[in-house]
User: Fold this.
Amino acid sequence: MNQSRIPGRGGGPAVVSGPGPGEPAPSPPRPGRSWRRIFDDRIFPLLLIAPALLFIVGLVGFPVFRTAWLSFTDASGIRALTEGDMDFVGLANYAEIFSDPILRRSAITTVVFGLVCVVGTMVLGIAVALLLNQPFRGRTLLGVLVLLPWAIPHIAASFVWQWLFDGQYGVINWVFTSLGFAQFEDFSWFTEFYTAFAVVGIVVIWQSFPFVTIALLAGLQTIPADVIEASKLDGTNAWQRLRMITLPMLKPLLLVLVVISTIWDFKMFDQVWVLTGGGPARRTEVLSVSTYVEGITQSEWGMGAALAMVLFFILIAITIVYIKLIREEEQIS
Amino acid sequence: MRSGTKRVLNGGTVATALALVLAACGGDDDGDGAAAPDPEEGYSGELTVWIMGGGDDPVGTSVGSMADAFEAEHEDVTVNIEYVPWSAGKDHYTNAIVAGEVPDLAESGNTWTPEFAEEGVLAEADLSGTDYVPVLEESAIFDGAAYGYPWYGGSRILLYRTDIFEEAGLEPPQTWDDMLEVGEKIAAEFDISPFQVAANNQHYFLPLIWQAGGEIATEEGDSWVPGFDTDAGHQALEYFQTLWEKGWSPADAETDDFTSLSLAEEFANEESAMVVALPWQVTGLVEDNPDLEGNIGAVLLPEGPGGSRDTLAGGSHLVVFEESEQKELAAAFAEFVVAPEQATDFAETTGFFPGTVDEAEATVDEDDWLSPVAAEQFIEHARAYPVAGWWGAMEGATAVKDTLQELMAGNFTVEEAAANLDEEIRSRAEDGTS
Assistant:
C-alpha cells in the first residue's frame, strides 16, 4: 500500500519498470485517480463499517436518545406512548429525583452500596485467586466449586438465599437461635435497611467474585516465575511480593475487572428485586429498581427515563475515570 | 379429538340457541349492518383470546374446552387461547396496547377494565338481555357504557379452625371487637397465632374502611374525594395497627414478599387459626395439609363499627379490543363463554361464581359448609373499588403497601397514614381526570 502511493521511493521494480528521467510521468494528479484515492481512503472504509454503524445507532443510539428525550417530559400512562400525549418539562424530573427522599436515597444507596460490593468482590476475588494459584491437593475441585455461584442464574440463586434468610423458616435464623442467640427467633432480615443490604451484599459478592477469581488466575499464570524467584532471593516476604510485584503486574487486568464489576454492581436489579422488592416502603431501592417501579409498574415513563439517565451518567463518569487511569498506566509502562 | 364429540354436540345446540338470542338482541344495536351476522351463515376467521392464569388452571382448562365447543359449532372459526400469568398480567396488557398488538378478546381483572376503557382501547359490550351480578356489571361500566362481559367473581371470607374453636369453646368472631377478644383467648390458650395481617395484602386492608362505614373515595361532580382521613378511615387503620401490634403476625409480614399467599400458607402450616381467603383457596389449603380436612369452617367477614361486612368483589370481565378486526366474532365468543349454559360447569370446575345472577345462585349448595357463606358474602356483602380510570394506577402502585409498612414500622401514626393514603388517591385521581 505504502509503496504504491509514493512512486519512485519504492523498491527496485519501480525503478526498473518506471519511466526514465525526462519522460512524462504517468500523471499523478489525474482526476480519475484522485477520485479513486478519495473513494479508497475515505468512502470505502465508511461503506464497510456502515452496516455495523447502522446497527449500533439503531440498537444503542436510538434507545439512548429516546430515553434522554423522554426524561425531559412528563410522559405517563398508555396514551403518552400511543398518541404522544406528553409535555416538555425540562429538568423537573431530575429536580424531583434529588428532592424526593425515596429517589434520593435510592441514588445514594446505588453509589455507596455499589462501591462496597465492588470492593468486596475484588478483595474476595483476589484472595481466592491467590489461593487457587498455590499448588495443593483438591485445587481443581475447589476451582470448580468457586465457579458454581457464577453459573447459577441470579434469580434462582437469589430465591435460595431468600429462603436461607427467611424470618420464620430460614436456616440462618435457626442456626443463630440454636447457638443461643434468642433475638434471631423470627428475626426479619429484610425489614431494616442495613440488615437487608447486608444480605443483598453477601448475595451479590457471592455471585460476582468467581469471575474476578478466574480472570485473575489467568493473569497470575502470566507472571514469570523468575521474577518471583528473584524477589525471593532478595529476601522479600509473601506480603511484600503481593504488594510490590504481583498486584502491580496485574494492574491493567485489575482495572478492567474493577470497571466491569462497577458496571455490574451499579446496575444490579435481580438480587434486590427478589430479596426485598425494594421495600418495605421503598426503603431498599437502588436506581435500577426505582427505574422499574416508576417507569414500568407505575407507567411514569418520564420519571423512569430520568432515573435511567442518572444511572447512565453515574456509570459513564466512573468509566471515564477508570479509562483515564488505564491510559496513564499504559503511558507509564 | 374423538373425546370431544359429545361435548361438541352439546355445545352445538347451546351455541345455536345463544346465536338466536344474540340476533334478537342485535336488532337495537347502533345501526351497524354487520353487527349481527345471520347465525345460520355463522362466523369465520381466527380469534386470539388472552386468558389469565395458566392453561392447567381450572379456569384455563374450562376455557379450553369451551373454545373446542365453539369451534365445533362454527366450522370456519379458530380460537387461539394464550395464557397470561396474573403476576405479569397488567404489564403484558400495557405493552400490547402500546405496541398496538392487542388480542381480539381478553380476560380483564375487574379493577382494570375502567382503566383500559378510559384509554379508549376497548369496544363496548352489549349487556342487555342477561341478568348479570350487579357488582360485576357495575365495575364494567365506564362513562355510562359497558366495556366488559361479567364472567366470574368471588370474594374473601373468614376461614377458621373448627377444632381449635371447639376445644376453646369459642364462636367465630362476628365483629371487629369479637375478633380481638377471640384472638386474645386463642393466643393465651394455644401455641398458634389467632390471625395474621400483612402489609402487602391490600385487598384485605382496603375493605376495612367500608366495614367502618366509610368510603375509599367518593365521586363529587368531576372530582374524587378520598376518604381515609375521616373517622371511619382512622378506625380502619387503627384496627389494622392493633391486629399488627398484638404480635400475632411474623416479623416478615412487614416485607413485600409476605402476601395473601403467605398468609394462606401460614394457615395451612397450622401457624394461624383464622385467615381471610378466597373460597377456592380451600382446596389448596387441604391439599397442602390434609390434616385440615374437616377442620375448617367459614363465616362472613366480621362486621366493623360501621355495621358493614363488605369486602371486595373480585372478578374478571371478558373485554373486546377496539382494534380487533373480529369484534363481532369476539363478542359472540365472549357471550358464549359467559352464557348460562356454560356457567354451572364452569363454577363447578373453578369454584368461582358465574357472572350471571341465576347461575350464581344456582351454584349454592345449601348443605355445604362453604358455599352458602361464600355466596352470601359475594352477593350481599361485596362491592367494587372506585370505578374510575385512575384506580388501576392506584392499585398497581405500591402506595397502600408502603403506607401500611410505614405504619407497622412505627414511622407513621394513624393520622399520618390516613393523610398519606388520601394524598396518593388525590394525586392519581387528578392525573386521571385532567
About this structure: The domain at 99-332 of chain A is CATH 1.10.3720.10 (MetI-like fold). The two ends of chain A are 32 Å apart (CA to CA). The interface with chain B takes residues 76-79, 81-82, 162, 166-168, 186-188, 190-191, 276-282, 293, 296-299 of chain A (CB under 8 Å). Chain A has a mean pLDDT of 85.
